[in-house]
Amino acid sequence: MRIFIGNGPWNRPGYYGVRAGSRWPHLETDCSPYMPFPFYMAYATALLQREGFEVLTIDGIAERISEENFIERASSFKPDLAILEVSTPSMETDLRQAQAIRSRSPETRLAFAGLHMLDQGEDFLAGHRYVDFTLRGEYDYTALELAKTLSAGGNLDQVCGVSYFDEAAGASHHNTRREIIKDLDVLPWPSRDQYPMYSYHDLPGGIPAPSLQVWSSRGCPFRCIFCVWPQIMYQGNKYVTRNPVDVVDEVEYCVKRWGFRSFYFDDDTFNIGAKEFTTMREDYQAVLDYAGFGKKIRPLPAGPAIMTLRVLEALKLSPLYKWVYETASKDSFVSIEKAEKVLGYAPKYSNKQALIRNYQWYMDNLGKFQGQSGVSHRVPWKQGILGIAKLFF
Fold first, then answer.
1. Where is average pLDDT lowest: 114-123, 138-147, 154-163, 182-191?
2. What value does the mean pLDDT take over residues 97-125?
3. Domain check: are 18 and 133 in the same one?
4. Residue 307: which domain range?
5. How many domains does the chain have?
């Protein structure tokens, strides 16, 4: 069975649209470099490929291709099932592209997924009969189960998260909504080989490019009005995390495979952490004390230190990138009270305990990477000017 998964071009004069991978689909000016990675498409692709399905996936927005190019590549693949990620603001474009794919490949079954309330209000499928299915919420496993059911000629009523038009009833039938994925570690890593990996651009704090976008969790306890994922993709505010070892393995693989210079956790929320913390100076002093070096952290005036690091960064000698050294001197903390109340979240370690555990892991594994340096968390970071300064201390 051949399956196509696509994020079609979405353009206006002077603007391009951002859809798949965005929690609030919108238009960007043509000169903007911003481009999110289409995680749901990539996870669905990985799941389908793992089960032996032949998958073509195209991110037409990231590839900056024309609508005609996208439609031609999708339809010429002659997929048995085509899944298009859509959104409310791009719906006019989405419907036009779906109709064109269906007209050129009449045997293709067509499904919509993504950020549109496809099971609310008027009967969407009754009004757009060239669309066969809608996949509601997280659609990774829904896409896989739908493909298996179609391939086997099974009963569509049993596919959670799917809506389809019931000819006998003359109306859409909405199957039970699929529960959110509670164990993210059963998922394969998102497929990246068919995507233009150097086109995805999101560099918070000026982290160096090219940069990898990765998920270490899904869900969020908060209710920000600009983000539609809790309502549409999750229908709630549950929060689940991945095994950090698997996350590090994924980052390390991608850094080696594509040569990324940085990576960015594009989680729904990353601001859930320790409840017990002190100042940065006290937290890191706890590590020095644990290590038994007998050393003390000595502060430097923030202004001169930042100016010096700016110069060192220009000379490619800074051990830190701009976002770190520009903000390290500013006090900040993240409240986890809502996560405790809504999710029953209870952090296992304090900041000091977590840092000491990281140091102990480093010591336990030092023999595996001694003499190496790089940008992954499995080898020591390049120390820049610190490597020279250490000779005098």
1. 114-123
2. 87
3. yes
4. 275-393
5. 2
Which residue reads 């549950």 in tokens?
Answer: 238
Determine the length of the chain: 393
Q: Which of 151, 174, 197 is the last residue of a domain?
A: 174
Residue 117 lies in a domain: yes
- Which residue's structure tokens are 């993210």? 184
Q: Summarize pLDDT for 55-101 with one digit per residue, the tens.
A: 999 999 999 999 999 999 999 999 999 999 999 999 999 999 999 99
What's the predicted TM-score (pTM) here? Answer: 0.75
End-to-end Cα separation, the chain, in angstroms: 64
For residue 217, report the phi and psi dihedrals to the nearest 5 degrees. Answer: -160, 170
Q: Could you give the angle at which helices 39-50 and 140-152 cross, rounded to 10 degrees? A: 40
**CATH code for position 47:** 3.40.50.2300
In the chain, DSSP assigns E strands to 2-7, 11-12, 15-18, 26-29, 54-59, 81-87, 109-115, 133-135, 162-166, 171-174, 211-214, 217-219, 239-241, 262-265
Rounded to an integer, what is the distance from CA 380 to the centroid of its chain? 25
**Which residue matches tokens 């989680």?**
267
Q: At which of 155, 174, 193 does a domain end? A: 174
Angstrom distance (rounded) from CA 183 to CA 81 = 27
371 inside domain: yes
